């Protein structure tokens, strides 16, 4: 069996971006692959909307894992999970989420620093410990797994760009493979577009 995590990691090349496209169901995942994308991501918003819910903490971990499995079964390219805040505040919960994500076949996933279902950001120290636990769990897996740590507070009006930079530097220092600051130039109320992505 190929290491889907290693395949996904190999797509992350400095100066050579690739398309990682959100899919909300099996049909959209297959369509995106047919159009030539090299990897697919789940989308918490898209998944929630298909259930008649709003984005931001309305999905359970079991629902997200089942949804991820459906997308994985529909395509042959790597799939990464949008797993919001890791489905809990405690670092141990986030670590469990990483292990479960790998078990269902995801190539990686992203973890946010927003204390869902609200918009408040986790305290800096707790946010860093959550990513440290996630990275530790990812490194003990039997295969490769790409962990993305998100600093969402600029997008949700919880902190400024300087604090976002402080956070992503700390996330990288404790083991995140990629760091991500959504919507650094456009502030919205708990919603925004993906615009700034940095991967080591």
Characterization of the model:
The structure is a single chain. The chain has helices at residues 4-10, 26-34, 44-50, 61-74, 91-103, 124-139, 161-173; strands spanning 20-23, 39-42, 79-82, 108-111, 146-150, 178-181, 196-199. The longest helix has 16 residues, at 124-139. The chain is globular, with a radius of gyration of 15 Å. A seven-stranded mixed beta sheet has the order 1-2-3-4-5-6-7. β3, α5 (91-103) and β4 form a beta-alpha-beta unit. The chain has a single domain (4-199), classed as Phosphoenolpyruvate-binding domains (TIM Barrel). It has 200 residues and is α/β, with parallel strands linked by helices.
| Helix content, binned percent | 25-40%
CATH H-tier superfamily? Phosphoenolpyruvate-binding domains
Mean pLDDT: 92
Tally of domains: 1
Strand order of the largest sheet: 1-2-3-4-5-6-7
CATH class: Alpha Beta
Strand elements, count: 7
Largest beta-sheet characterization: 7 strands, mixed
Strand content: 5-15%
What is the CATH T-level topology? TIM Barrel
Number of helices: 7
- Which sequence of SSEs, written as H and E, runs from N to C? HEHEHHEHEHEHEE
What class would the helix/strand composition place it in? alpha/beta
């Amino acid at each position: 069996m190929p290491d889907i995590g290693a395949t996904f990691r190999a797509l992350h090349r400095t100066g050579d971006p690739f398309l990682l496209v959100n899919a909300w169901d099996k049909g959209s995942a297959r369509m995106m692959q047919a159009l030539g994308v090299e990897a697919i991501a789940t989308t918490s918003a898209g998944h929630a909307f298909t259930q008649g819910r709003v984005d931001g903490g309305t999905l359970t971990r079991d629902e997200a894992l089942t949804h991820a499995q459906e997308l994985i079964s529909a395509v042959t390219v790597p799939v990464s999970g949008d797993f919001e805040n890791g489905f809990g505040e405690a670092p141990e919960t986030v670590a469990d989420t990483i292990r479960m994500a790998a078990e269902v076949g995801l190539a990686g996933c992203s973890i946010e620093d927003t204390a869902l279902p609200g918009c408040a950001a986790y305290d800096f120290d707790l946010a860093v410990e959550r990513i440290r636990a996630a990275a530790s769990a990812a490194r003990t897996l039997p295969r490769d797994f790409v962990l993305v740590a998100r600093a969402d507070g600029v997008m949700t009006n919880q902190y400024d760009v300087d604090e976002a930079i402080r956070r992503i530097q700390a996330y990288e220092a404790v083991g995140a493979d990629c760091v991500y600051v959504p919507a650094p130039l456009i502030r919205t109320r708990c919603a925004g577009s993906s615009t700034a992505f940095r991967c080591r």
